[in-house]
Write a structure and sequence with these properties.
The structure is a homodimer. In chain A, 35% of the residues lie in helices and 21% in strands. By secondary structure, chain A is of the alpha/beta class.
Amino acid sequence: LLALDWGTTSMRAYLLAGPTQVLANRAAHMGIMHLPDGGFSAALVSLCGDWLQRYPSLPILAAGMVGSAQGWREAPYAKTPAGAADIASRLSSVEGPMGRAVHIVPGVISTGIVPNVMRGEETQIFGACALHHGLAAEVRRLIVLPGTHSKWVAMRTGRIDNFITFMTGELFATLRQHSILGRLMPTAEHGDHADSHGFDLGLATAREHRQPGLLSALFSVRTFGLTGHLRVEQLASYLSGLLIGYELLEAKSTFLNGSAPLPTPVLLVGAGTLCELYRRALPQFGFLPHQDNLSNAAGTGLWMIAKAAGLISTNHESVHA
Amino acid sequence: LLALDWGTTSMRAYLLAGPTQVLANRAAHMGIMHLPDGGFSAALVSLCGDWLQRYPSLPILAAGMVGSAQGWREAPYAKTPAGAADIASRLSSVEGPMGRAVHIVPGVISTGIVPNVMRGEETQIFGACALHHGLAAEVRRLIVLPGTHSKWVAMRTGRIDNFITFMTGELFATLRQHSILGRLMPTAEHGDHADSHGFDLGLATAREHRQPGLLSALFSVRTFGLTGHLRVEQLASYLSGLLIGYELLEAKSTFLNGSAPLPTPVLLVGAGTLCELYRRALPQFGFLPHQDNLSNAAGTGLWMIAKAAGLISTNHESVHA
């Protein structure tokens, strides 16, 4: 399988012989907003032309913003609840280089007071379910993908049951770079999350200042600096803790009823540094983090969806072989 | 009195013969971050040199960021509860042009789970109290100064009892200009708050999505656009309504106990367009807006503080003469 994780800013390609058998992988700064002249087809040839020539019957499956209205071919959202089979039955297709079909994974939409959407995360999630023994079979499980737009996903018997999006990472970056709060902070030398005292105070403020709420708590980044409670080098970590703290409060009100911790651990999927921050924060808000993080499950997810769609025929193989 | 409202970006000067008797007023883009060479003294001469020469004994009183650590002379915060007399007893002074003393109004600080500070707003507030019949005498009253950093101020018998700051305006501007949400919005032709349907839907989402909360509600700016619930021209108004809605929810949890409306109206002090948005929103969250807005009460406030400090001696005069 030629598996493509094709997002807004970058494109990653995996040549797969099985769910975790990566023969080769490549990445380029050719996300859908950074395409070369010639567009999608040219980008694919530029990154993977030799693979396409060497394997003339290689199936191609792509996930991510490549399936959005601004992408190569729109793949309309699948509604929750959605499992790998539901997703696999709704692939879109477009003619790619050398007349080859490129199949595109749809995103997922959930409705509620406000709609929620994902594109690409569903593939990470089905990858995570395949990589973790028994995850698909568990009745209920929370998977968290922290990041620019953090996703909290409630799984039920292997399907995406519902989910919610928090703009935590984008709000952090925007306030850090463009607000008065950011102007109080020196340029990061060791990363913005390196001060554990500042980070923990941010988490504590979120808990204690749950009401009123975030809009007023944000001003404390300024006043804790003014009053000497925090040094300027600690303010970015404090802001990070504050925002992650409010994310966890909102997630708690969404997914936890009462004060009992969730019976099964929360699985974190994402970059290691960020997952470690969430691992530190989760128990302070009544969540149990799973002992492992997963850094990237997109390739495995694409394999699982391709298999469910009948794009690849394989002998019986185990993910954990 | 030479009354100076001297903030971060601009400086306004009033030549006053009484609390509302403005003989002349001038403004310049000479806030503390935009000073001419020669600094504060040169800026004052440049804007008001002729007044200083014509009135050799004219007292000078300044309020705003000019009294901050980055200002001309730091005027340490007065603690709540703080009335005009408390403020007047804590003026700082610095030698200005021609050896003239420039007196500087301190800001106000309140403590709590997080500290809150104001600088300049206290002067607007004492001006508003003087301009509004009976406001000072009322046992409790809420004054709201919407803006970049909205202030909600609880007055008790004419003193600032406690207050809270919401970063509503700054968050709107930052997200509008620098986030993915802003990139979905076309450039504003008629102002970002002109679509009343979008604004009202933002208020409604805040009420209905009170829990989980703001971090997840923000993503609805994107999804209501994606799903066709709102046109792109409505998204900025929707974001404005959403943020003001959460401000009102947080204010409600701070100042209102139970569901009964506040017995006396909320007085809005600020720019007319913004005050009208709050006037529209307040009743939907259990607040009664006062029938009048005040657009600028800084001159009157400086007069009241100067009088309390003994900087000016006047015959008995009425604000409402």
